[in-house]
Design goal:
four-stranded antiparallel beta sheet; Aminopeptidase; alpha+beta; 28% helix; three-stranded antiparallel beta sheet
């Protein structure tokens, strides 16, 4: 299956309707809002969450069907953009996340010279996304305890991954130095 990517233009009525249908037509178990209502999706669109000076959104399409959505954030404002990746329910588990992450990484590093690193965060229990990060050269940089709120349940741990431009360009992986606390001997503040 060949995947293509096209820029979303939510200022056009048909495109806004397609975004609302996609977001409200699937469950998003590892997102902050696991079930998006049509009204919520429409509000997000009118609030500029999908297109603006610092945000771009792209559709992933396979065989004429929109199978995923990639939202890039903090563009131009920051050397470290973030992203939101959503794969349609019936297309999950088929490697589309890897293709999307590979594409968005290349896109961001090719299109934005100021970008030095790209970050992504997911819930600790989202094993598929965590494997995708690792497969694509991203490194776990953070573990946030009880930082991912849920609707009516206990908060989940969140984990943060990133890739450096240098690592992407050279095909290397530079792990963080986790043992630096032993260098903190001396008086506390």
């Amino acid at each position: 299956m060949e995947i293509t990517y096209r820029r979303s233009r939510p200022d056009r009525r048909a495109e806004a309707d397609a975004l609302v249908a996609f977001l409200s037509g699937h469950d998003w178990p590892f997102h902050g809002t696991p079930r998006v209502s049509a009204d919520q999706a429409a509000r997000w669109i009118s609030d500029g969450h999908f297109d603006g000076p610092a945000t771009r959104t792209f559709w992933m399409t396979a065989d004429g069907e929109d199978v995923g959505l990639i939202r890039l954030m903090d563009l131009g404002d920051d050397e470290t953009p973030l992203f939101d990746l959503r794969i349609a329910t019936h297309h999950r588990g088929h490697g589309l996340g890897r293709q999307a992450l590979t594409w968005l990484t290349r896109y961001l590093f090719d299109e934005f010279a100021e970008v030095t690193r790209i970050e992504g965060t997911t819930r600790q229990d989202n094993a598929a996304m965590r494997r995708t990060f690792l497969h694509c050269g991203y490194v776990k940089e953070a573990h946030y305890r009880q930082a991912w709120p849920t609707d009516g349940g206990p908060a989940h741990d969140a984990v943060g991954y990133a890739i450096l431009r240098h690592d992407w360009r050279t095909g290397t992986v530079t792990p963080p130095r986790w043992d630096d606390e032993r260098d903190l001997s001396g008086p506390t503040a």
